[in-house]
Write a structure and sequence with these properties.
Main location: endoplasmic reticulum
GO molecular function: SNAP receptor activity
Order of helices and strands: HHHHHH
Family: Belongs to the SEC20 family.
Largest sheet: none
Helix content: over 70%
Strand content: under 5%
Protein name: Sec20 C-terminal domain-containing protein
Number of helices: 6
Transmembrane segments: 215-233
Structural class: mainly alpha
Length: 289
């Protein structure tokens, strides 16, 4: 609550200061134009005085709004009522200042018109006063031309600065676009890099698989050759055994036939003897096998 009271007191002080300054500006507007041009008075233009007065009115309106917000937050009812009554007084003073500002502007216009009429009469008339007034007019004209040249130079400088700012803005926009393009290229490069990495891994896998397939083929072919050699060697051994058996049987049969030829004829046809049937040797060997 103490903070609210402090804020209210601060607002009141600011109101008093702004009110006094605004009244001074309005009085200056009301007196504007009464003195002749070039007399050293009226250094502040009417537009400037009106701007200062409008700023003061805006500040007073803001302080009035702040007091309206702070009034209900005061600790006691008496303070709230007194602040609200003060707020009503401020509103009336604010309206009065606005009316006075309009009246002061009208008075300033009348003063300017009267002063111009007086200067016109002096210029048309004769005498030293008219000559002095003409000299002042000429001096003011020189000052005015210098001020216009300075203003034109400032205007050109401002135009150059505006162009430079626009150029800088365009450069920044171009940089932003380039940055966007580079970021896009970087993202695409990252995508291609991941694709290349997967392709490299796939090629490595295919190479390993190719080596494994070659090893399998070599091992399989080697086993097949071994099997063929084994089968051939076994087959050759059987044939040799068969030839040896055949040769042995032939030799035995040849020996037996020789023995039969050497026996007597009676013994050959003995009833107890089994007749010798001429069976081809190759057929018998084939049957045995």
């Amino acid at each position: 609550m103490d903070e609210v009271v402090v804020e209210v007191e601060k607002t009141k002080r600011e109101w008093e200061d702004a009110y006094e300054k605004t009244i001074e500006h309005i009085m200056a507007i009301q007196e504007y134009g009464k003195s002749r041009r070039g007399d050293g008075e009226g250094k502040v233009s009417l537009q400037r005085l009106n701007g200062l007065a409008q700023d003061g009115l805006s500040l007073l309106n803001s302080l009035q709004f702040n007091l309206d917000l702070l009034a209900p937050q005061l600790p006691s009812v008496d303070q709230v009522q007194s602040t609200q009554s003060l707020l009503e007084t401020w509103k009336n003073q604010y309206q009065s200042l606005r009316v006075n500002l309009r009246s002061a502007n009208l008075q300033a216009k009348n003063n300017i018109r009267k002063t111009a009429q007086e200067e016109r009469e002096l210029l048309l008339g004769g005498g030293t006063e008219s000559t002095a007034l003409r000299r002042k007019r000429q001096a003011n004209a020189g000052v005015t031309s210098d001020a216009e040249s300075i203003t034109e130079s400032l205007r050109r400088s401002r135009q150059l600065m505006v162009q430079e700012v626009e150029r800088s803005t365009n450069t920044l926009v171009a940089f932003d676009e380039s940055t966007g393009v580079l970021k896009k290229a970087e993202s695409e490069y990252k995508g291609h890099r991941s694709l290349l990495s997967r392709t490299r891994n796939l090629l490595s896998t295919m190479q390993r698989q190719d080596v494994i397939d070659r090893l399998i083929l070599i091992i399989g072919f080697s086993l097949f050759v071994c099997a063929v050699v084994y089968v051939v060697s076994k087959r050759i051994g059987i044939l040799r055994l068969q030839q040896m058996a055949t040769a042995a049987i032939k030799a035995r049969m040849a020996g037996k036939a020789a023995n039969d030829d050497a026996m007597p004829l009676g013994q050959q046809f003995d009833g107890n003897t089994v007749p010798n049937v001429n069976i081809p040797l190759q057929q018998r060997l084939h049957d045995e096998l």
